[in-house]
Amino acid sequence: MNYNWDWGILFREPYLDWLIAGLGWTISLSLAAWVIAFFLGSILGIMRTSSSKTLRFIATTYVEIFRNIPLLVQLFLWYFVFPELLTDEAGRWVKREMPMPALTTAIIAIGLYTASRVCEQVRSGIEAVGEGQRNAGKAIGLTEPQIYTNILLPVAFRIIIPPMTSEFLTIFKNSSLALTIGVVELTAMTRQIEEYTFQGFEAFTAATIIYSVVTFIVMFIMRIVEKRARIPGMMVSG
Amino acid sequence: MGDFDYGVIFNNIPFLWKGLIVTFKLTFLSIVGGILLGTFLALIRVAKIPVLSWVAAAYVNFFRSLPLILVIFWLYFLVPLIVGRPVGSFYSVLVAFVLFEAAYYSEIIRAGISSVSKGQLAAGRAIGLTYPQTMRYVILPQAFRAMVPVLLTQAIILFQDTSLVYVVGLKDFLVSAELIANRDQRLVEMYIFIAIVYFAICFAASLWVRRLQKRMATS
Questions:
Q1: For residue range B169-188, what is the model confidence (pLDDT) as tens digits?
Q2: What distance in Å separates the CA atoms of residue B163 and residue B175, rounded to the nearest whole number?
Q3: Does A216 touch chain B (CB under 8 A)?
Q4: Residue A1: which pLDDT band, with cuts at 50, 70 and 90?
Q5: Taking residues A174-196, what's their average pLDDT?
Q6: What is the reported pTM?
Q7: Given a cut of 80, is residue A235 above it in pLDDT?
Q8: Fewer CB within 10 Å, N- or C-terminus of chain A?
């Protein structure tokens, strides 16, 4: 193997700044997309387990569509196709005048995609609480919304902390797809360093370490959260 | 939407078909390689061999913490460097997919192995089989039967993931469509078309997996 090592490159200007900026974009993109995925996914998960046939159908259709098209293709649909389907004026706004078009599109695309995965986690959490609890709620005269807010959801969200953590980490990793539409997040930055300096080994190592460390930190924090949220005397395991 | 041009799709079917074949080839070889390496990793972990088990666990956790795109870039850069000559993007990304997917397959297979009751291992040893023989003839055949639906679901995910070879420009289904889209200025038609094709394939496959699952549950 013929290679000139230069680890110092990572700490030289402007490359260190690039890495930090890249990590910043990766984290902001992931958090923003997670907000969409979490709220929309939770609503869809509730819809999928509700007693209304229409709501169940809508949520199921959503999940099937978003789960069965590759995320990269979805990203291109939102970025290249969606503005063309609007009126000229609206299309121009989405493509150019909207603040940070590429980043915003990536946040929405990744958020909507992950919502379909979050929906399935929320659904399995609610199902894990059990039919008995739901019937008990009905028996004491609670309405369906009350059953969800007072009985099913408080337990379900505790049960699904571990799978939801891995869904967040999936968003964190999938945020790298945004580089295909020009968002210079962490992976794009290291690729750029490789192209400028030909020190691919060092650049990719830096990204690898950063991704692993962030993953480790998130898992560490969530393990504590899970322990804290555990209901005493109730078997809750992930 | 009034000027949706179906012609651009029909005229380029042979070219798109070639791309789809590349996607299928990459998916199939990655599944085979990923399951082989994944089984190997899972067996090491289940056998609790000192040091090696730890290495296998570290491998799995390491690859699961990385974005696939980064792994593709890594191997695209590393494989020619290690081999010492250009090898073409197909082999580089194939290595990336096998290494990456093996981590996910290994977790599925490990879960499958632990779903086989402990008594089976003891029974195998009791009739005089060695540990590797028990694994090979008693545990793994049962484990793989139970795992088929999950392995297939992972295969569907892998099929979708192969679209990420876009980042190194390998001419798979997506890149072929993108080339035509840019050449003919027909982005809307091409992207909608490939989204429908991907959806049709993945949806049909997932329905089939679900039916299989139901049949296995009742038998």
A1: 999 999 999 999 999 999 99
A2: 8
A3: yes
A4: low
A5: 94
A6: 0.92
A7: no
A8: N
Tokens 């072929």 found at: B176
Nearest to A211 among B70, B160, B192 (CB): B70
pLDDT tens per residue across span A65-89: 999 999 999 999 999 999 988 888 8
Contact A190, B81 (CB under 8 A): no
Please, where are the H alpha helices in chain A?
A: 15-49, 53-67, 71-76, 82-85, 88-92, 101-129, 131-139, 144-146, 153-159, 161-174, 186-197, 200-229
Q: Which of A27, A69, A171 is the mutation pick for testing B, counting most B CBs within 10 A?
A: A69
- The answer to whether the Cβ–Cβ distance between B163 and A68 falls below 8 Å is no
The helix/strand/coil state of A2 is coil
Q: How far apart are CA B71 and CA A87, in angstroms?
A: 40
What's the confidence (pLDDT) of residue B32?
Answer: 97
What is the CB neighbour count within 10 angstroms for residue B81? 13
CB contact under 8 A, A204 and B163: no
How far is the C-alpha of A119 from the C-alpha of A40, rounded, in Å? 8
Provide the phi-psi class of B29: left if phi over 0, else alpha when psi is between -120 and 50, else beta.
alpha
- Take residue B134 and report the two structure tokens written for it: 């028990």
Burial of B129 (0-12, 13-18, 19+ CB in 10 A): middle
Say whether residue B199 is in contact with chain A using an 8 A CB cutoff. Answer: yes
What letter does residue A231 receive in the DSSP assignment?
P
Q: Measured between alpha carbons, how far is A168 from A179 in angstroms, rounded to an integer? A: 19
Out of B70, B73, B198, the one facing A70 most closely (by C-beta) is B198
What's the rounded mean pLDDT across residues B49-63? 95
CB contact under 8 A, B203 and A179: no
Q: Which two tokens stand for residue A175?
A: 């945020």
Do the beta carbons of residue A36 and residue A118 sit within 8 Å? no
Q: Does residue A2 register a pLDDT over 80?
A: no
Nearest CA in chain A to B156: A68
ipTM: 0.92
Would an 8 Å CB–CB cutoff place B82 in contact with chain A? yes
Residue of A14, A17, A207 lying closest to B65 (CA atoms): A207
| Contact across the interface for B65 and A215, Cβ inside 8 Å | yes
H or E element, residue B73: helix B68-83
CB-based contact (8 Å) between A3 and chain B? yes
For A83, other C-beta atoms within 10 Å of its C-beta total: 20
